Amino acid sequence: MSNKAPAAISDQYELWIDGEERSAGTDDRFTVVDPATEDTVADVGMASGDDVDRAVSVARDAFESWRSRPPKERVQVLTAIAAAIREQSEYLATVETMENGKPISSSRSQVERAARHFEYYAGIADKIQGESIPLSDGYVDYTIREPLGVTAHIVPWNVPIYLFARSVAPALAAGNAAVVKPAEQTPIGALELARVATEAGLPDGLLNVVPGFGAEAGAALTGHPHVNGITFTGSGPTGTAVAQSAVENVTETHLELGGKSPNVVFPDAEWEAALDGTITAIMTNAGQVCSAGSRLLVHEDIHDEFLDDLVDRAAALELGPGIDDYDMGPLVSADHLEKVQNYIDIGREEVGDPVIGGGRLDRDGYFVEPTIFDGVSHDTRIAQEEIFGPVLTVSTFADEDEAVELADATDYGLVAGIYTSDVGRAHRFARDVDAGQVYINEYYAGGNETPFGGYKQSGIGRENGVQAIDNYTQIKNVCANI
Ligand code: NAD
């Protein structure tokens, strides 16, 4: 651990406003629980509507000076933040594992992704430029890309540190000031990232964190009349409510929502890669990933053999506390455990017992076994609804057309994976499927540099890559009669 990081996670956190820890205006507090032990990690001040108002007003003031600073200063500050995250990476990874439960090696990767994100957008901050547009003689026309102003960031609990960085880094790079509402289950990583960014030289007021619950702090932020852009990452129903309230203020809104992503395996697939990819797709982070490959579509000719091998892989996964780096950690909370167990019960009613798993570990913590349901019809609830746990449904298909048809047979359109050694087939599938991302022969391919977002009910807008800058800028056209 770096000597710059605190020695241990504090048991008390407040809000982060104007470059420092500030108490909430009320005495209301909430607790963060370690999902591997069910012990309380810390208690945290709860932001009220007044606190959110204060954060937005501070951000507005900070924005006015940030927007007029030379872009190269943004490059320097974001570069310094990336370096500071790396310096404190072991500490931040520990925070992520304590709050969320994921294996520490996975937390380390996510913290590195967060650092890389600031580094990547540091490289873009001084290259955000307009264009000139040819018109008839007598006119000069050009565009200017300007920041939106104050941007609101609603972050979920499943990958809290990286998802914070994912929208905040491009927003700051484009010259905005940010207010973040982290998920109530995982606010500490956000508060620690704000501290790290401030210590690295980010001017006060540009990054504020208002922990609390969605219905209060979240709604106050997304409905605030002085918020100029919203990035919401979370579930479809909440995202829809946020978008509805944003319309009242005509606030630009981007939604990164859920998925029910298919993973399609053809007989000519490289066998081990397809097995690895299928397990990684659904068991990473105990299935609590928006882009989790939660539906396996396997060709009917290889179904039996592939399923046998898949069950062996699932059985080999060891579950235990993320801090000890087991293969799979717990689910994030007691509420979420109940939701996932409820879906497993629904699966039992719809298709019978799972071929493996289905139970909870007999120990403290919210551990659910890797669970696979076979023979799942596409019109069942377990094949249609996002379970967000280590629960895989398996169905078969006969040919390419049916593979695409089944892949598209949900309201979601986040990711689609395919395993085949036929290059033409892989690209035909990529062309035909309705998904924002297509992974060929490796799940979770791509990275900070590749645009990420949803088709259909999986969202509006794109994060990552140069495309994310569009979310945080607006275009001014200037036309002159010369
Ligand atoms: P959620 O919708 O319950 O909560 C997300 C965030 O919204 C939390 O911070 C919550 O406090 C806040 N919130 C709740 N009500 C609100 C309101 N009325 N106004 C404003 N904010 C409000 O989702 P979750 O359970 O925390 O996260 C899991 C979901 O997130 C899954 O559906 C998953 O697929 C999705 N997700 C999507 C992506 C993506 O990139 N597409 C990434 C990660 C997670």
From TrEMBL:
Active site residues per record: E256
Q: Which domain of life is it from?
A: Archaea
InterPro entries in alphabetical order: Ald_DH/histidinol_DH (IPR016161), Ald_DH_C (IPR016163), Ald_DH_CS_GLU (IPR029510), Ald_DH_N (IPR016162), Aldehyde_DH_dom (IPR015590)
- Which keywords does UniProt give here? Oxidoreductase
> Which residue spans adopt a coiled-coil conformation according to this UniProt entry?
none
Domain Aldehyde dehydrogenase, first and last residues per copy: 27-478
Please state which protein family the record places this protein in: Belongs to the aldehyde dehydrogenase family.
The name this protein carries in UniProt is Aldehyde dehydrogenase family protein
From what organism does this protein derive? Haloarcula saliterrae
